[in-house]
Every structure is written in C-alpha cells, then in structure tokens.
Amino acid sequence: MSRIAKNAIANFGGTASAAVLNTVFTIAYFRLLGSESYGLVIFCTTILNAAGTIVEAGIARTSTRELARRDHAPDLAQEMHDVLFTLQLIHFALTLACALIIVGLSHWLALEWLQRGKLNVDEATRAIMLVGGIAILQFPRGLCHAALAGLQRQVFLNICTVAFVLLRGVTTVATLLWFGPNATIFLVVQLIVSGMETTVLFIAAWQRMPKARRRARFEMRYIRQIWAFATGDAAAGLIGVATGIGDRVLLSSILPLETFGVYALVVQIADTVQRVAGPFAGAYFPYFVDLIARKDDEQLSHDYHRITTVVAALLIPAAFLICFFPAEILQLVSGNPAVIPEFAPVLAVRTLASAVNALQWFPHMLQLATGLWSPVLVLNMISASIYLSGILLLTPVYGVIVPAALWLFVNVLQLIPMIVMTHRRALMGEAWTWVKGSLLRPALVSLGIVVVGWYFAPTTISWLVTVPWLAATYLVAMAAVLLASRRTRPLLTALWSR
C-alpha cells in the first residue's frame, strides 16, 4: 500500500474515531454541566480556538509545506531542522503574548461581555484565566502536528490523537462526576492533558526528522523566503476562522448563556460533517505539494478528482441526513424536547452550510499547494463583512436562525469563484469535470436515497431505533455515490471482492 493511501486511511480512521468519541463526550459534558456552564465552557473554547488561529495562522501550514517540499531530498535535512526550529521560536513567542492578553482581559470579558445569568463574575473570570494556561501548553501541539503532517507521519499522528481524545474525555467525565459539574474543574483537566499531549508530539516530531549535520538554529533567511506565502495564508486563515467562529463570539454577548450553550451544541453537531474532509485534506496536501514540485500533472489530475469524489460520497449523505432529521438528532443528543422548535431549523441550515464550506477545502488546498493564497483572502474578506455584520444587525430581530442562514449564504456565494480560480491555476480546463463528478452527481444520488429513507423512517425516536436507521441510510447513499462514478467504482468493487 502506498504512503498516501496509508496516510489517508489513517487520517480518516483517526478522525472518525475522534469524532465518535468527541460526540459521546460532548453529550456527556452538556448533560453533566447543564446548558449555562456548558455555554461558559464553549465560550472559553472559542477564545482558545480564536487565539490558536492567531498564533498558528500561516505558521502551521507553512511548516507542513516547507517540510513536505524538502522531505524527498536527504541533502536538505539540515534545512528542515532549521526551518522547523525557526518557526517554533516564532510560534512560542506569539503563544506567550496571546496567553498574557487572555489573562489580562479575563475579568473584563466575564463582567462586560458574557450574559452570565446565574454564574458569578469570579467563576467566569477563573475559567477564562485558565484558558491562558491551556494556550501555553496546547498551542505548541499544533505546530508539532503540522510538522508530522509535513513528514507524512499521519499513522502515528492519528494514533496519538485518538489516544489523547479518549484520555481527555474519560478523565474529564470522571473528574466532573467525582468533584461535581463545574466549568473550572473541566478546564483544569484540559490544562493537564494538553501539557501531556504537547510533550509527546514535540518529542515525536523531532525524533522523526531526518538526521542533520548539526543542531538546529534560528535562520532569518528562511523567514525572508516564506514570509509572503505565510503572511497571505495567515491573513486568509484569520479572516476565514473569524467568519467560522465569529457567530459564537458575537452571540456570547447577545444571547443568555443558557441559550448560547444550546446554540453551541447545535453548531458542534452541524460542523461534524466537516470532519469527513479534514483527514483527507491533511493527508493529500503534502502529497499534492510534492506532485506539483515534480510537475506530475497527470497523476495530480487523477488523484485530485478521485479523492474529491470519495470525500463527497462520505460528506454529502451525512449532511442531507442531518438536514432531514434535525429534530430527531437534537432530541437524542440534548435530551430536551423543549429546544427542538427553535433549534432544529438552525441545525438543518447550519449543517448544509458546513457541507458547502467543506466541499471547498480541496480547491483551496490545491491553490495553496501551488503557492496561491490571494483569491481566498479576498473571498474571506467579503464573506466576513457580510456574515459578521449581518449577525449583529439581524439576530436581535429574527433570532438564532440568522447566523446559520448567513453562513449558508456566504458559502454558496464563494463556491463558484473558488472553483473557477482554482482551475485557472492548476488542472486548467477541468473545472466542469470536477463540478459534475464531485458536486452534482453525489448531491443528486444522495438526495434521492435520503428522501426515501426519510419517507419510510420509523416514527419512534430512540438510540436503538433512530441511530441504526440513519446509519443504514447513510451507508446505502455513500455506496451509491461511489458506484455512480467511474473514478471510485473500482475502489468499492475491490473492497467488495475482498
């Protein structure tokens, strides 16, 4: 089996396992903490994710790209060491600055920003201050993760990821049951486990680097070489993530914390469809960088069309299932039927928007593999201005459906420009082929099967009845999409013959 196949399988298996575990633990956290304390935890997590994006913007993906470009040449081992060491120093300085800013703003955020409800200011302040400590211990993990991805060590990486997701979840649930449901206790556990995970990945990243002539050192010349790509990617990434998590940042100051907690749960469920694309994008990005560096356009075309069809077969049926069964899923996960009338439409619309967003990851990744970053920056700036201003203006009037509807609108708006600009830079003349094979055909086949599954679905809602029905419908739709394409049909028939 080729390295890229192993990496793709490892990434998908790891992400699928982590997604299942995270879903189980998320349900446990929500039910143990209650919607208000869970809302505080999600607010703290949002701060952590936003700060992490600022720190890693441009640096993580640049690390993956620079190591992948040099990995095929043994004589470039010293450059790889120096590049990674240089980026790690910059990364740590940014991490420390972000952590200090979070701690400094903690009291103001707790007092002026959050709609706390029953939570007191001191408890909210302590929770936000802990985010600063978690940042110092957790953020270096991201760069180690990117380095291992650039070295194409995804099998080891995914084993570690799943192991620490399991450790973090079991430890957190056990601690909450033992000491009581409290957001501060929750975050202390994250602090400890994050430190352990970062230590393991840091050691692993350096151990798996090729042997160099001397110790790594800081080299300013590498910054001069990569600053344009890193800065452009950072700007596009920051605006993209600001758009992606901006709803939670803004809504945490608009909605009561209890309502915000339910909204955050809905967003987490909806965004699980994006986990399908993530592992394949992580495996194929360094691989596409290598193919472009070697000018192997024929192999690039074949692999790009096939993997995007596979991703569509896995992603689109899942999105349609959540869109057609939002009330059933929300009742199973939340255990609170009272939230269904308001939040079931939010779940359906947000899921569709997340699917459209995830389908653009591979075109974006192909642009970055060629060194092109400016189109996504422009698109993200336009999307962010529409999305964030719309949330502020329309949510107080029309309610929590607004962020989901706006997220769908901006993602549909940028889909066509993303496809066109990608195929002007790479695989020119293949845009319509990609649209037919990786968008339209999978969507039509999936929609037909999911509609049939929805029409004949049992009326009883329970884990033992609803979940197997949804799983069976998903598997049928996924198999049908794979069989409908000549690019992926051999994969399914080969699997069946075994």
List the keywords:
2 domains, mainly alpha, 498 residues, globular, 18 helices
Description:
The protein has 498 residues and is mostly helical. It folds into two domains: 1-218, no CATH class; 230-486, no CATH class. The chain has helices spanning 3-56, 59-70, 77-113, 121-150, 154-179, 183-207, 220-254, 257-270, 277-293, 297-324, 326-334, 340-358, 361-369, 374-398, 401-425, 431-455, 466-484, 489-497.
Helix tally equals 18
User: Would you count the extended β strands for me?
Assistant: 0
Helix content: over 70%
Tell me the overall shape. globular
Return residue spans where pLDDT drops below 50 for at least 5 consecutive residues. Answer: none
The topology string of helices and strands comes to HHHHHHHHHHHHHHHHHH
Distance between the termini: 15 Å
> What is the average of the pLDDT values?
83
Percentage of residues in strands: under 5%
For the sheet with most strands, the description reads:
none
Structural class: mainly alpha
Number of domains: 2
Radius of gyration: 22 Å
